[in-house]
């Protein structure tokens, strides 16, 4: 008798199990008569297992261990063992999921007139359809109540972090007060982590409570019950690593401040909501509470997650990226037409575009985003969607801090003159961000001189350098510096007045014939400008120019780099911070530092031109926290 095992039964270890059962009369396993048979292993099976092992997948290692057991059985004389056929090429291994390797295995069984042995029901049905003999062995299954890695968890543990050669660590505490601490003195070993990984991946394959969310060379992500487990392997990581995360609390909307008002707001009509906060602040926990409330309020709710780890009830269907694309998931959901969709996490431009498309299609959307301030969540939409559409996409921002609702913003659009500007011809669409509790405007967002600006309102009255003042001062400086060749200083004397000091030689150029040039500037900006020479400017005690009473903060000196496309301001160690960029202490612009620790300003923009002008004049460029 000749049998040809395919990859599925080799990975499961079922061939050696059946052979040993036939050879042992006292075995609890019913044998299939494989003892004494010739086991014909296709090289296609070996190639597929080798590829999986090279990718760091545990299935590959398990299959290779089964092949070694078959060698041992052949050495004992229990079976004969042969390797036949050809190895699959790179394309066939890549398309293994399309059945290319299964076809090579069937060819071996047909050529040898042997019985194909499989645990793959599709392979079994295709083999029968081709008129070949097949033995189907039920896939190995087990009931899994607990993973080995759960032994590291106690009631206050949110996550466990294991890495070869490092002490096991855990994050313990409560939301907003987590501490990363070692939980064992002994270092984790390669064998230990491989054992944990085998247990986790077998649970994902065998248990109805688990599934493999992602399986790529070097990284697997498993969802088992309420745990999300990431398994990283070389060469993707420098050493084998396992990170297991679970929620430590489940809340209801009633547990949060403003619960009554938020319930009314969510049910008044379908809305666009951004739930924001720092990592670990409790954003996802709040999103789960919102989802459960909406279901109880008779709304159809779905989620979009990659990976799926929101702890929601069975009434909420959780979707992941369809074919690796959230855009395809969104297209499918638009056919389902949920009342609300929870999008966790909204990070990249594609995510914001999908969120916007679904919201504009009439679906209520709840997005979870990382942000260090409530207004930062809204600013992440700027440049990704048309400015005027933002209030249609997001009308509510909820900021979570230490597990509590810290701030709620209401977002609307008005056509008005921005606060601090006076001329009627400066009226424009303005996004007004109001505190949900008090109804007071907190920010205005609008386009000014082709730039999108976010201006804070209701600042301390003693702070003479308010957001509007800085903006007005910046625009006056920009206009005058475009005319003057020398140094320019600007001081605001009120909402409608400014004094400009320039070099003596620049006075005629700035004022223009009959005052025409400065009048044009005044008309464009809606502000009266008094032009004086720098010698007329009052000096401080040191003899230099007198600074505003609010004086510029002492900043960190930086050396911008001008490339063909950008002006780059390096700011190592400030990733995610919002800072002001100044030249000789004068405000230029506000920006958020990228993850790479820099600010990039596109050349050709007004901000870049002003920054380049400051660099060319040898001015000191500094940054200060915003």
UniProtKB/TrEMBL annotation:
Biased composition (Polar residues): 544-555
InterPro entries registered for this protein in UniProt: KH_sf_prok-type, Nucleic_acid_metab_PIN/TRAM, P-loop_NTPase, PIN-like_dom_sf, PIN_dom, T2SS/T4SS_dom
Residue ranges annotated for the PIN domain, each copy included: 1-125
CDD domains the UniProt entry points to: PIN_VapC_VirB11L-ATPase-like (cd09878)
PROSITE patterns, per the entry: KH_TYPE_1
Region: Disordered, residue numbers: 534-555
GO molecular function per UniProt: RNA binding
Keyword RNA-binding found: yes
Keywords: RNA-binding
Family designation: In the N-terminal section; belongs to the PINc/VapC protein family.
UniProt xrefs under PANTHER family: AAA FAMILY ATPASE, MEMBRANE PROTEIN
Protein's name in the database: PINc/VapC family ATPase
